[in-house]
Amino acid sequence: MADSLSRALEAAKNQSIISGMKITSNCPSATHSQFADDTLLLSLASVIEARAIMDNLSLYQSASQQTVNFNKSSISFINTPPRSQRKIADIFGCIIVDLPASYLGIPLFQGRQSKNLWNPVIERYQKKLAAWKGALLSQASKLQLVKATLQNLPTYFMSLLKIPSSVREVVEKIQRKFLWSGTEDKKRIHLVAWKEVCKPTTHGGLGLRKMNGALLAKLAWEVAKGDSCWAHLLRAKYLANNKDLLTSIPIRGSAIWNSISSSIPIIRAGTKWRFGNGRLIDF
Questions:
Q1: Residue 29 has what pLDDT?
Q2: pLDDT digits (tens, 9 = 90+) for 205-223
Q3: For the segment 223-248, what is each residue's pLDDT rounded down to a tens digit?
Q4: SS (H, E, C) 88-119
Q5: Three-class SS string for the chain?
């Protein structure tokens, strides 16, 4: 039944009943995004559009015999007067959540990313360490915990955003202290430099990986060659005139785009040129 809601919203957009959100003039507007039983709605902040969306939700509820839980729903605004925010929120009967906020565990924010966005990751690190504190662990056991748990905690965030250097230093400091001391409180001599620890085992290291660049490179490759909706939107906004991400100099943009484009050197280092028709090359 979620597909029927998706089709209804697209039909309303095609009939100019709702406009959705447009990130640039040369790409289509987006009205919604769905994941499992969760739906993110995108719209202009107007009472007319809010009522049109509410009409579609009411039709969906009647047809599917399913109820939208507005008590668990929220609405966020960008550059909207407080009075208009209250009017629109009253139509849906849900609370207003100011940005920065969180959606499916991913931070939603406007403008540049703040290191405060990473506070939940650092807090999760500290909770994990508190649970392990006092445990009699061998060096090998601590290494496995760092690899299997501590290194994976920020993966969700790092798959979208480049970790700020100040946050990376805090995270690596926590990993170092746990590996050599077993706790944040005790101070012990670090027997091997951290850059040596992070080297592959074939090069004499312990195989700890720095995943941020690899995760962002995966997104960069999707932008360059993928066919997903979000990749089309980013290409339309940042790669005008059919420029190729891997051969052009990326422009500055949103925090997520800047994070993705920062990983392009990783892809370029692992690719080779192949002769073609020259269509994507500027001389």
A1: 86
A2: 888 888 888 899 999 999 8
A3: 888 888 888 888 888 887 656 777 66
A4: HHHHHCCEECCCCEEECCEEECCCCCCHHHHH
A5: CHHHHHHHHHHHHHCCCCCCECCCCCCCCECEEEECCEEEECCCCCHHHHHHHHHHHHHHHHHHCCCCCHHHCEECCCCCCHHHHHHHHHHHCCEECCCCEEECCEEECCCCCCHHHHHHHHHHHHHHHHHHCCCCCCHHHHHHHHHHHHCCCCHHHHCCCCCCHHHHHHHHHHHHHHHHHCCCCCCCCCCCCHHHHCCCHHHCCCCCCCCHHHHHHHHHHHHHHCCCHHHHHHHHHHCHHHCCCCCCCCCCCCHHHHHHHCCHHHHHHCCCCCCCCCCCCCC
- Name, in order, each residue with C-beta under 8 angstroms of 59's C-beta and a sequence gap of 6 or more: 8
pLDDT in tens, 155-185: 888 888 898 888 888 888 888 888 887 766 6
pLDDT at 122 over 80: yes
Across the chain, what does the average pLDDT equal? 85
